[in-house]
Design goal:
The protein is mostly helical. The protein folds into three domains: about 120 residues, Helix Hairpins; about 70 residues, MazG-like (Helix Hairpins); about 55 residues, no CATH class. It is about 65% helix and about 5% strand. The chain has a two-stranded antiparallel ribbon with strand order 1-2. A hairpin with a 5-residue loop joins strand 1 and strand 2. The longest helix has 26 residues. About 10% of the residues are buried.
Length: about 300
């Protein structure tokens, strides 16, 4: 019997017993905990991986570790598709990511480490703990505060952050975790004042000329900038990604204007580049104004 042949039902004390889906489903098809029924469409991804493992030498040779680079790559491609606002592209990239997730589950099942039902059981249990107000188990609480209470004694509230997390994203997550236990500014204004303080310290470090001091103060300034963005309701990683895209698009337009004039940007003076940059910004303002006017028409 494979893991997909039955569902594992868990009692309140955590013990497991074989059960059919109907044991936990009301007559109208709604689960007793309020979560809607599943038609099992995502199980097809698991079935595809099982088929590939049985019939393709390359897929059969893969291990959980050998697939890590593909998992990371596909995750980033999903992010790129989201940011490009291309629904068709996102549809495909989510499928690729789902294949990688399914692969890890099937490999674990083959090793008898855990099965697909255990993955979903843990997900359901976690979401119920983190949303007690939705399941009649308590009042609404801060997500990070709930997570902090679940930690074993002596374990840091900062535990669990992936070692390879992008530094900007890691700064945001550190701040969220600290905020969950009450260590935070009351609002963005406090962080704004801290940014001003860090700017002064950065100026002093630059005047001092010590590279290590400059690096330390630059880090403090960036961390504080993440803080003010977070408290203003903006994720610094997303904000920086948008700015990167904007700057890249504008400079490509600068290069285009330079070529139209028979020039290369590497041969132009800073004053000439500044003039083209200002021209590109003016074009962007005109486009934005036109889009705003068009949006108001019926």
């Amino acid at each position: 019997m494979t893991a997909s042949d039955h569902r594992i039902a868990r009692s309140a004390d955590g013990t497991a017993s074989d059960a059919t889906e109907s044991d936990n489903t009301a007559s109208d098809g709604t689960a007793s905990d309020g979560i809607g029924p599943s038609e099992g469409a995502l199980d097809r991804a698991l079935a595809i991986v099982e088929f590939l493992r049985a019939n393709c030498p390359w897929d059969r040779a893969q291990t959980a570790e050998s697939l890590i680079p593909y998992l990371i790559e596909e995750s980033q491609e999903v992010v790129d598709a989201i940011r490009s606002e291309d629904a068709r592209e996102l549809e495909g990239e989510l499928g690729d990511l789902l294949l990688n997730v399914a692969f890890q589950i099937v490999l674990a099942e083959e090793a008898e480490a855990f099965d697909r039902n255990a993955v979903v059981d843990r997900l359901e249990a976690k979401m119920k703990r983190r949303h007690p107000h939705l399941f009649g188990e308590g009042e609404r609480e801060n997500w990070e505060a709930l997570k902090a209470r679940e930690l074993p004694g002596g374990e840091s509230v900062l535990s669990g952050l992936p070692a390879g997390l992008d530094p900007l994203l890691r700064a945001h997550r550190i701040q969220e975790k600290l905020s969950g236990v009450g260590f935070d500014w009351e609002d963005a204004e406090g962080a704004r004042l801290k940014v001003a303080e860090e700017l002064e310290e950065m100026r002093a470090a630059l005047d001092g000329g010590d590279p290590r001091e400059v690096m330390d103060e630059a880090g403090d300034l960036l961390f504080t900038a993440v803080n003010i963005a977070r408290l203003a309701g903006v994720h610094a990683s997303n904000a920086l990604a948008r700015t990167n895209e904007k700057v890249e698009a504008r400079f490509r337009r600068v290069e285009e204007l330079a070529r139209d004039g028979g020039r290369r940007v590497a041969e132009m003076s800073l004053e000439e580049l500044d003039a083209l940059w200002d021209a590109v910004k003016a074009e962007a303002r005109v486009r934005a104004s036109g889009d705003s006017s068009a949006g108001g028409r019926e």
